[in-house]
Amino acid sequence: MRVDHHDLYTEFPDMRDAIDALKAQGGYIGSLFGRYNRLTGKVEDLEEHDMPVADFTLEDMKKARVKLKDEIFHLLMAFRAGQKHSA
Question: CA-CA distance, 29 to 19, in Å (whole number)?
């Protein structure tokens, strides 16, 4: 089965610098990145190996990933806005 990869660099290619800067800070944002990466790894592993799992389970995992991605996106945008104001 063909699996689309959803790592943060693929999802937000124009925000590599912000991702790296926030990842280096650790703390809450670091834990969000970690949760997103672990969940993405699980989803991609299930899809890649065509493992038997209830459709609603996989869909719930994907919904949780979208929710995390949305939160991360807003933090990345706020970081970028802060950079512009401090420059």
Answer: 10
